[in-house]
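Ligand: zinc ion. Inputs:
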Amino acid sequence: MKSVNLTRETAARRAELLDVNSYTVHLILPPNGERFLSRTVIDVACHEPGATTFLDLRGAEILQATLNGCTLDVAAYNNHRSDGGETGHDGLELPNLEESNEIVVEAWCTYSTTGEGLHRAVDAADGTVYLYSQAEPADAKRIFACFDQPDLKAPIALTVSAPERWELIGNSNIVETTPTTPAEAIYVGSVENPVTHTFETTKPLPPYLFAICAGPYSKWSDSYSWTGDDGTEITIPLNLYCRETLAEYFDPERIFELTKGGFDYYHNTFGVPYGFNGSYDQVFVPDFNFGAMENVGCVVYREDYVFRSQATAGKYERRADTVLHEMAHMWFGNLVTMKWWDDLWLNESFASWASVMAQLGSTNYQEAWTTFTSTQKNWAYRQDDLPSTHPIAAKMDDLQEMEANFDGITYAKGCSVLKQLVAYAGLEQFLKGLHDYLVEHSYSNATFDDLLKAVSAYTDKDFAAWAEKWLTTTGRNDIGVDVEVGDDGTYHSVSVYQTGAKPGAGELRPHRLGVGLYRFQDDELVRTDYAEVELDGERAEIPELVGKPAADLVLPNDKDLTYCQLQLDDRSTETVLHHIEKMPDSLARTLAWGVLEERTMHAKLPASQLVETLIRALPAESALPVAEHLMARGVQLLRRFVDPAWAEAEGWDRYAHMLLAIAREPQHGRDQQLIAMNALCACALPQEIVELLECGLDEGLSAIGVEGLELDTDLRWTMMAALAAHGAVTQEDIDAALEEDSTSMGVRRAHTASAALPSAENKERVWELLLSSGEDAPSNWTLVALLDGFTWAGQDELLQPYVARYGAEMPGLWTRRTGEIATTFTQRAFPMWGAVDEVDSVMEQMLAENPDLPAGAQRYVKEGLFDSRRAAKARELDSELARLDD
Ligand SMILES: [Zn+2]
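Predicted complex:
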């Protein structure tokens, strides 16, 4: 599998051998059928004439291929199908290259239904077809023959033949449109009036940033201008697109405003103009696997960012974060690209960091770091606890390894550590170095060392030592504060300590961090003192805090400057557990919530105590993204971490009533009410609330005391799924709801509701569907929708048979379906509901019997096992507490 699972070594050899001068790509896109025609001409120089290498092309049937006019033998390629039924695992051999070469490949390529390569989606509401591409990390080769690695950049000249009524959106602008020749028109279908669009040749791009979207997308236009200090003027046309059936819900003004603010911010901050020709297009597409993708000049977003129903402020904030993240990549990642995927972390961490900076600098989202701490950083912390954790700067030996590393370490730990790096270098110095780096490596590739070198020119800090300790190690240091209180009630000494990072080799690291002292004043818990300190060895004294009266809460890492496992002393833990809602500072409060969550996960705090705190304090939580995160966390705690007897006897009941009470209080605001309703519907519900939801769905929300919240399409579906899971609606009711909302989104929501119906026969039906291949195989989004319903809270008994079946049937999916689909199933269907002993033995046996399971699959199973054991420990602690109470 040298092409599909390209190794770093093979890629390095190919980069040494070749200079790709240009790609000329012609795509013929029929709206119907399973495949499209792709013709590529490549102009490539070879530094060692006579050498042999290979070209990447996946899942295709090659019609003809020539190298310097000589026909290549394509029979071996066409006949070699791997287990997944796909061609192209070894690529197409290119023997005996000359100094300059012309390669021509014409092939039938396959439309994807999994979001990899050129995806084809059919709108359920009106039957129209929409195409979009996703080429990262290495799926450009599903669209055209190429050298699919980041450090072989080349300009791309693209022409596309497609139905006349379609919008075509690519990396650059269309410069000419002509009728398609009759010979080619046949492939598109002559009723479609095919036309051929010629796109302007792009700047040099790596194949993974190639993009094409096609279909009857609705379009909005605007433009952006900027004048640099030296008088440089640039104007960038801006376009937005989404499916026709979603157009009425789209809010282009808001996104244009955000886009212009972002461009202003990055231009002024980086001091380097946007580097690509053509318009900056943003396309919202169906069935997208990720939040978004930063293709040059053609950013693709998941369609959930078009809000067809009422959306919370948190969702708008997340969308803004994504828009600004992708835009940052236009400089960092697209203008200057990593050499190999080893620097994936830097690419993603930089964009995440820049996005928060841009939100603070150009939007109303002034609590962007609080949101980051609550969502992203907690994600990193969870991932970093797992035995599978890895250094931020991981050596990615091949593509399989890299694909498994699109995780919390790469995105969120990397970003937290980059934030430390900027604090260490100084923002001004960092930005000066960044400017030089962007100028020096424009349209080319670079590494992290190149960035450090550029920043080093402006400071005398030792980055090599710093990078070694932060980037090549794993795990977290515990950080806490030791105090000595004298007879007079004041501190005689205050020091901050760290322990060796774990899991891992136990390194100490350099930290810059804050320590806050909090005391009760007028029933608020306020910060009365604060000091910052450099901690390099095991311990550092904080003389500024000596002599202060003993505080009710001592908060290490206050203001969240560093990345660590925060330890609270006993008094502080008690204070937080009983008074967290009295902390007015949202970032400090979020840190305190994080400590409680972690202590629960690590079986140091009984989970039911945190649920009690949530029941008391959540109604007062005013930071919406934090509240949303915590509401979902409560559901998870009740499902997996608390004593099951307590959850059943009172936990679920009281938690659900708390959420209902929030939803019934209009003074909380619509956003708070909506997230509470959503969380409520994910609970295992007491019968009276099930009846209440039934009544609400029939008679409207006012009938159940929820005023000020609209019962819109998506909230209806959310309630419908909850009712389905509790057996209060039938498949017929779901079908009737689908008649009312026969959109693609409706179909997806119906899948979830129907998969949640609580009968053994239904679970069996869904399981079969999840694992099917061939024509019935679920697409990527259908799979997720089905799994959401299949694994519903409170159905653990029904799901018992699927512990053993997961072990027996999951491995086969890795050979029958694509990596994206198999990954989704392996992670989301992992039987968290199973008894820990059974899960243990089933998984151990499965791993032993399937030594060839891809590294990613093995890793996800081991992570699942770790989580399952951890939850069991937490339940045990909580049950012990219950026995003590009895
Ligand atoms: Zn990114």
